[in-house]
Amino acid sequence: MQSQCIWTPFKVLTPLSFKPSSTFFTFSFSKQLLLPSKSIAAVSSARRAISSYPSLMASSPAGKDVVSTQNNSNQKTQQPLQHVAKRLEKFKTTIFTQMSSLAIKHGAINLGQGFPNFDGPEFVKEAAIQAIKDGKNQYARGYGVPDLSSAIAERFKKDTGLVVDPEKEITVTSGCTEAIAATMLGLINPGDEVILFAPFYDSYEATLSMAGAKIKCITLRPPDFSVPIDELKSAITQDTRAVLINTPHNPTGKMFTREELSTIASLCIENDVLVFTDEVYDKLAFEMDHISMASLPGMYERTVTLNSLGKTFSLTGWKIGWAIAPLHLTWGVRQAHSFLTFATSTPMQWAAAVALRAPESYYVELKRDYMAKKEILVEGLKAVGFKIFPSSGTYFVVVDHTPFGLENDVAFCEYLIKEVGVVAIPTSVFYLNPEDGKNLVRFTFCKDEGTLRAAVDRMKEKLKRK
Q1: Contact residues for 324 (Cβ-Cβ < 8 A; gap 6+)
Q2: pLDDT at position 97, please?
Q3: C or N: which end of the chain has fewer Cβ atoms within 10 Å?
Q4: Which architecture, in CATH terms, is 88-113+361-462?
């Protein structure tokens, strides 16, 4: 008796392309074959085998892509191991994420991460809503909505007296963090030396590592965190490509003086060195006027000025930043930006333009409000028993925690969260050598007054000198 075969249509995987240098395999389900029904099970098994194959984008720290494990039926299965590029191996989950997670777990008041617990101004939020309603929701021009670029140029002229071309010298980015990344990746070559001032915002080191730079560090030390000029002079060599400055300075609250900036400028001109200057806290300058490096004689042509909307308008989640630089430097920044994010949120850019055209009274009130918040925190910390270091700008205060007897800043911050119910940030994460920051922690006062008073009360009640 002749056996019968029932033919059934079945889609199978057929490879469309394979590049030996690539980690991607592309398959198509488009071809349909007639297969005997007895063969369907075999094909299905093959499909399952392919779909369960470990991702080719994951590999082990030892360079092996997978490990074998044994399941209950004595069959070996393949489990992917994680891998990270060597240039990022040393970087863990950011301290801000760690501390904020602990804050939630223990119900602690978060005076650690630098974001306000209050909202930005209504007129700016309404501008964003209107932009969305007006259909401004598709990709913006890669380097920025023209109206925002113009508003940035107008604001920069008011602040520095410098006239810049909004079409050729301003690049809008997804927050200042992306502006920093685009600047490093667009203007720094592997092996270039870049000088940082420690303590520093943690993304500086990570981004420079991605760019393959050689990092040199000049440490700013308490109580005044002044720039050690002789040390800086010794650090600059023929391989130095750039100096990265942050003023007002996170985490210390230091503002670089005109004398310090002028000395740095002279050294950069003399040695043909660029300056990248992070000025996101420029409107939170309390005890002296902010000075933009680009405004000093001979410096605009070698300076990239980095800034953002978030700190000034309490809209950190919008991630609107920008880089201002002469055409020959803007080219590199834009090249990197094109392949990082290409463009930034369109409706938020339209609203940012409205924000930057706020009357001067807005900035006066902003500073007045933050000075009142700062006083609540600083006086409270003094009463608790901390040694306070001066903060001339930003919304941060750095203190010496050693009167309370914990071995280092990380141990102190963990104790503060778990036993006292308040969050601070250990500053050792802001140094190449963590030992330099082990005695210091950072508090922020970008919170409403009730939150600040509640945090101070908790510390007065539960935190005791040892």
Answers
A1: 152, 156, 164, 169, 170, 294, 304, 305, 307
A2: 80
A3: N
A4: Alpha-Beta Complex (3.90)
**Cis peptide upstream of residue 223 (ω within 30 degrees of 0):** yes
pTM: 0.82
DSSP letters, 226-261, are: ---HHHHHHH--TTEEEEEEESSPTTT-----HHHH
* Of the candidates 117, 115, 120, the residue with the CA atom closest to the CA atom of residue 362: 120
Annotated domain spans of the chain: 7-80, 88-113+361-462, 122-358
CA distances from 140 to 175, 293, 337, 403, 434 (A): 15, 30, 13, 53, 41
Tens digit of pLDDT for each residue in 211-233?
Answer: 999 999 999 999 999 999 999 99
pLDDT of residue 36: 39
Burial of 311 (0-12, 13-18, 19+ CB in 10 A): buried
Contact between residue 167 and residue 149 where contact means Cβ atoms under 8 Å apart: yes
pLDDT digit string, tens, across residues 352-378: 999 999 999 999 999 999 999 999 999
Greater model confidence, 235 or 89: 235
How far apart are the C-alpha atoms of 256 and 262, rounded to whole Å? 10
Q: Compute CA 333 distance to the chain's CA centroid, rounded to the nearest angstrom.
A: 16
Phi, psi (5° rounding) for residue 309?
Answer: -85, -30
Whole-angstrom CA distances from 350 to 136, 163, 171, 347 are: 8, 22, 15, 5
Tell how strand 396-400 and strand 387-388 pair up.
antiparallel
Helices then strands (H, E): number in the chain?
14, 19
Fold category of 122-358 in CATH: Aspartate Aminotransferase; domain 2 (3.40.640)
Instruction: Work out the average pLDDT over 122-130.
Output: 98
